[in-house]
């Protein structure tokens, strides 16, 4: 029989869809940072004694920060044989986990999506380790890689001065808080993005007659006892503090200026973030989040909260179920945005007003690089503009690591990204121009962009994983590509 046109079109369409799905799966199936095998990273054999390379600083890389990112970078440098010195302004390693979280906190991502992939967390750790368990793990990691002799604690880097730009870049003068200056071959800034507090602006907030703190300053429940508490914000810290205020304070209230997607930590006994796989298209991931939200929460209006004004993953989702539970119990009282503050009274945009003894602003953080002059790294909407989100334009071996926020734990991407960073530093030795400028000439240097509805750079971990893997494969070709760009006149 003669085949009808619509049957032919339908058949071709089915073949195209199946082919697209197969190619999509083959491309993305291994781009899962949480499931990277430890064997893919260069091995490191500990010596009987941890010694620091006897090399002048001009042949070393300066790493600023010994938190989650800084330690991962230091370990990668150890594996690749790159000499380095690390400075940490606090008196202990661990960064935000050591000095920036409250004592009752647990990770919201899972163990598998938080651990370094070159040194997995102990198998007897729970799915959501506590802050103390994370600190113990970070110290074990530092001991395993013998990092402590390289790390100078309690020393702050005040200024980093480039010695030349472009092809004439010849290192960096690093000035410490005590006035000491050393010249390093390169600098990696890993000072974190959970320390420069971001506050909203409300009329009368500076004259509030009670106590006002940022969530960064909240450490323990005793700060909430016998107080009427208002928590401003709807992120993970805000929800945790509001629930603790309901347990330990007189009253607990929350103020949200927008709606949030509240997702549970687990679904069917599995950490929610572990259910998302790289081969799932973004529209499907968003559908999964939407369906989970509707099945577990329903509609925010049932809790007297605003409905989300954005799609899932356009803004960092809130992984918390307790807040909604406590709202239903009548122990946490929801409010819309603040109109103004007068004395101890907070007036909300819906006309209601309440008196409070303590306001906790859980309103996020700015990305700040205080050791770099503003003419070294440009900013757009508060985000440093870097080649590939890591390399400073027009400078050799100047990197800012970890400014973005991934949709789950950062450990696997820190391991993968730090390994790429080590390869980039080695590759730079074989280039005349800054690697960032070569990226720009190739048209692959697009800096990270902030979503219009999110105050931070929220990144897809699977896309980042694929990008890093591709960049790793491209590193050996960079000298050839540099010469090609010079021939084409795109590099001067």
Question: What is the strand and helix layout of this fold?
Answer:
Elements: H1 5-28, E1 61-64, H2 68-80, E2 84-88, H3 96-99, H4 131-144, E3 151-153, E4 157-162, E5 172-176, E6 181-184, E7 186-189, E8 196-197, E9 211-214, E10 228-232, H5 236-248, E11 251-255, E12 262-263, E13 266-267, E14 270-271, H6 282-296, E15 318-319, H7 322-328, E16 333-335, E17 338-342, E18 345-348, E19 353-355, E20 358-361, E21 365-366, E22 379-380, E23 383-384, E24 398-400, E25 405-406, H8 411-428, H9 435-442, E26 458-459, H10 461-474, H11 478-487
Parallel strand pairs: 1-2, 1-7, 2-3, 7-24, 9-20, 10-11, 10-20, 11-16, 12-15, 25-26
Antiparallel strand pairs: 4-5, 5-6, 8-21, 13-14, 17-18, 18-19, 22-23
Helix pairs in contact: 2-8, 8-10, 9-11
Average pLDDT taken over every residue:
89
Content of β-strand: 15-25%
| Coarse shape | globular
- Kindly report the spatial arrangement of strands forming the biggest sheet: 3-2-1-7-24
Largest sheet: 5 strands, parallel
pLDDT < 50 stretches = none
Helix % is: 25-40%
Textual characterization of the structure:
- By secondary structure, this protein is of the alpha/beta class.
- It is built from eleven helices and 26 strands.
- Strand 22 (about 380) and strand 23 (about 385) form a beta hairpin.
- It is globular.
- The protein starts with a helix and ends in a 5-residue tail after the last helix.
- The mean pLDDT is about 90.
Concise description?
This protein is of the alpha/beta class and 492 residues long. The chain has helices spanning 5-28, 68-80, 96-99, 131-144, 236-248, 282-296, 322-328, 411-428, 435-442, 461-474, 478-487, and strands at residues 61-64, 84-88, 151-153, 157-162, 172-176, 181-184, 186-189, 196-197, 211-214, 228-232, 251-255, 262-263, 266-267, 270-271, 318-319, 333-335, 338-342, 345-348, 353-355, 358-361, 365-366, 379-380, 383-384, 398-400, 405-406, 458-459.
């Amino acid at each position: 029989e003669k085949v009808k046109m619509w049957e032919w079109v339908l058949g071709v369409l089915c073949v195209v869809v199946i082919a697209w799905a197969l190619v999509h799966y083959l491309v993305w199936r291994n781009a899962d940072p949480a499931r990277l095998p430890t064997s893919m990273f260069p091995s490191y054999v500990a010596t009987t004694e941890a010694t620091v390379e006897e090399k002048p600083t001009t042949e070393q890389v300066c790493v600023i920060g010994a938190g989650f990112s800084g330690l991962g970078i230091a370990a990668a440098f150890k594996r690749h044989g790159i000499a380095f010195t690390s400075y940490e302004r606090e008196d202990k390693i661990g960064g935000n986990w050591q000095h920036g979280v409250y004592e009752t906190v647990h990770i919201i991502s899972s163990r598998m999506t938080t651990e370094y992939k070159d040194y997995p967390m102990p198998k007897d750790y729970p799915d959501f380790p506590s802050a103390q368990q994370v600190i113990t793990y970070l110290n074990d990691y530092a001991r395993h890689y013998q990092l402590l002799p390289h790390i100078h604690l309690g020393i702050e880097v005040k200024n980093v001065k480039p010695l030349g730009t472009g092809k004439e870049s010849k290192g960096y003068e690093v000035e410490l808080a005590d006035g000491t200056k050393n010249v390093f071959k390169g600098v990696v800034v890993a000072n974190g993005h959970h320390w420069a507090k971001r506050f909203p602006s409300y009329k009368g907030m500076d004259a509030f007659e009670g106590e006002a703190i940022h969530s960064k300053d909240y450490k323990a429940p005793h700060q909430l006892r016998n107080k009427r508490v208002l928590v401003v914000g709807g992120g993970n810290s805000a929800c945790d503090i509001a629930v603790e205020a309901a347990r330990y304070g007189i009253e607990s209230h929350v103020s949200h200026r927008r709606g949030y997607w509240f997702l549970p930590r687990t679904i069917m006994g599995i950490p929610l973030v572990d259910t998302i796989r790289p081969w799932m298209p973004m529209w499907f991931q968003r559908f999964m989040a939407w369906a989970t939200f509707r099945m577990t929460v329903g509609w925010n209006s049932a809790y007297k909260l605003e409905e989300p004004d954005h799609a899932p993953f356009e803004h960092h989702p809130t992984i918390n179920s307790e807040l909604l539970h406590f709202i239903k119990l009548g122990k946490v009282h929801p409010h819309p945005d603040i109109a103004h503050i007068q004395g101890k009274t907070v007036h909300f945009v819906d006309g209601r007003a309440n008196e409070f003894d303590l306001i906790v602003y859980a309103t996020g953080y700015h990305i700040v690089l205080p050791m770099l002059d503003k003419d070294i790294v440009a900013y757009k909407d508060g985000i440093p503009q870097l080649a590939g989100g890591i390399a400073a334009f027009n400078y050799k071996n100047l990197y800012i690591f970890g400014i973005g926020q991934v949709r789950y734990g950062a450990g696997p991407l820190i391991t993968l990204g730090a390994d790429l960073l080590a390869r980039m530093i080695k590759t730079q030795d074989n280039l005349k121009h800054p690697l960032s400028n070569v990226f720009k000439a190739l048209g692959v240097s697009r800096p990270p962009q902030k979503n219009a509805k999110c105050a931070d750079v929220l990144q897809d971990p699977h896309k980042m994983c694929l990008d890093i893997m591709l960049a790793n494969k491209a590193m050996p070709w960079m000298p050839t590509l540099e010469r090609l760009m010079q021939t084409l006149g795109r590099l001067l």
